[in-house]
Amino acid sequence: MTIKRLLSILTVIVFMLGSISSAFAADAVTAVKAELAVPVGAKINPSDEMNVKISKDEAKKIATDILKNIFDMEIDEKKFQSRIELRQDYEMPRKYVWEFRWDMHNSEKSMNVHVSIDGNTGKLVRINRHEYIHNQEQSIIAKITEEQAKKIAEKFINKINPDEFKEVQFMDNHYMKYDYGRYRSPNYYFRYIRKVNGISFDRNSITVEVDGRTGTVTSYNFRWDYDLQFSSLDKLIPKEKAEEIFNAKTNMKLRYVPIRDQEKYSNKINSVRLVYAPDFSFGYMLDAEKGEMIDYTSKTTEDRKVKDLTQNEKEQLLKNLKPIHKSNKEIDNARAEVVIKSILKELFNNKYEIERIEYEDRNIPWDSEAVKTWSARFVPKDGLSRYEHGGSITINAMTEELISLYRYYDPEMDAEEFEPKLTWEQAYDKAIQMIAKYFPDKLTELETEQTYRPQIHIINGKKMPERRFSFNFTRMVNSIQYPNNSISIGFDIKTGEMTELRCNWNEEIDFPNISDTITEEEAKRIFFETHKAELTYTMINKNLDDSKPAVEVKAVYKLNSPTIPYPMATIDAFTGKLINYDGQEIVEQKDEFKEKIKGHWAEKQLTILATQNIIDAKNFDPDKEITTLEFIKMMVNAKGYHPYMTREAEDLNFTNITKDDENYGYLQIAVRYGLIENKAEEFNGDSNLTRENMAEILIKFLNYDTLAKSRDIFTLPFEDADKVSPDKIGYVAIGKGLDIFVGSNGKFRPKDNTTMVEAAVTIYNALSNIKNINR
Predict the structure, then answer these.
(1) DSSP, residue by residue, 356-417
(2) For the chain, give me the number of helices (H) and strands (E)?
(3) Sign of the Cα pseudo-torsion (158, 161, 166, 171, in order)
(4) I want to staple 753 with a disulfide (CB 3.0 to 4.6 A). Which of 47, 330, 582, 625 is the partner?
(5) What is the pLDDT of residues 166-191, one digit of tens each?
(6) pTM across the whole model
(7) Are 767 and 775 in contact (CB under 8 A)?
(8) CB–CB of 434/448 below 8 Å?
(9) H/E stretch holding 660
(10) What is the spatial distance between Cα 329 and Cα 376, in angstroms, rounded to a whole number?
């Protein structure tokens, strides 16, 4: 995994937690930079092979022995394409690894095997092996339970790394299970965190992926440091004192957060919630020895600048505001080009020209309805580095307003020496002037206070000034932040020119009033009742030169909630309930499902179906009669519930189902899968589902609908075959032939209502025996 990808993932996570604090965002990204400071994945010069203790031939023997002895797999060099590299490890670039890639593709099968061996210890660092046999159908559901897969994973670890296995603890990732369960996979993933002196060190871990269909290990990742010094825990401040410091340093601030519906793939935000969110301006990590708030560079968080407009400056600025021209009709290509050229000239004189321009509907901001826009790519007129130093600009096609502008940036320019043309304070003033010019109607709704923490860059041993200043002005409603809407502006310090500008603004949201909220003190009490200080080791880079990291392991306290499946929660400003990053109330997760099905004849099947999120474990009652809608939702989950598919799905014709119905998306996908017909009639989803009607939906699910309609060619072996409706005979017969129906003493009971367990086991049997269902 590259640093770019890691930082992208962190950006997504921070964006989801955006209501908490920008300090958390900065420190989270810094944490990755501390570990991935040197160029990642860089190939090593041949002469550098002398710097590792394990030779290429030794590493290759280790890799092939592991494949032979553990995976019963021998590499035939004549059949495989191979590549061998000595490189810095993608995930732990302080290490060198021998990376072996064997790939084979022929008419019978395809196989990819990637193995990484530590260049100094000879330990297996990573293995990924995937095999696909052409024309051989494969089940899409697991045949073993998660517990069975976990035993396989632990047996594998104990064989590969027996000593390290004694130092790890299994981490049950509830967060991923509860929030990403819709994206089903037959594989199981297990992560084990290193523990030292009785506390966790999550920068070292072992992860294993087990194929739930075959019970084989398909991937293994080993992140481990042998040369780190772990500080003693003797002289640390007690947990109670740490929580006092967190309490004193953490303020609870009112914020609006968007309410998202996880069941629908729609960016549009229709409503927001008022919450209290923790403000970690002083940091969110506490040095367990000194009792100071620190970041991942081991610096305290006190060194910062704050700037805002004075009252007089605000009054003068508002007094001199000039309203921008807004078109009253949609503009064409020619007019769009005139507007864009005018903006580029104002910002960069005559430096750029338009290379191409295009019209499109875009979700700008991403949480609103699509907006009609004109976008253009611009390049330098001098023809030099046209693509490296060009950029893009987008305007609103209905109003001519500027929406975004971005100039391409080469990170290598950070290493160039230059004389800064802007101080941070001067850049702030320019940003305010930009907003006043291009977004005058929004200036009064922005939080103009900005905080700056100086960054020191040492590149190739030289102290370099920062190359960019960035500002993010958050939208304020009722004097409360709504972080999802903002205007962001960046500047190149060397040239003094703007490098980026973006306006995310949703005018369609109704914001709740702020009366009758609980107090900040009450919100803080609730927050710290559920979030406790947890002692852990973390990795610090003591060297300001990121190219030569000096790693130190430090004991710190971090806030964690042991009772909820989320890394951090906010507090509903009216009810005091815990709220997740989707703006939804956090409901305590009680694992009653396991107890409910313990000892049941279908315990294994139900466990697997629940793990793969095909059945709703929270509302599942084995003996309850299932409704038509419940069964259809179960079927959609089995075939693959992907909310993004609703974007291209046809509108429903059912007379009693509106787009606001919580099940609208499920029914759209059900129509797309051919499970139900999209008729202009009432959809009776609450009706009980007879067993013969279940058979019809299931066989449609398996794409045998056409065959099933040829009912005259089928006979039924059930004692009550005469009770099956004539138009259902083909469906029941195919299901029986495939051995997927749960019978009862030789009877099918076609008119009986289907129970939840009967429906679930029938689906499990179908997924187990009918392979590669077309999606």
Answers:
(1) EEEEEEE-SSTTS--EEEEEEEEEETT-TTTTTS-EEEEEETTT--EEEEEE---GGGGGS-
(2) 19, 27
(3) negative
(4) 625
(5) 999 998 865 444 444 445 678 999 99
(6) 0.79
(7) no
(8) no
(9) none
(10) 20
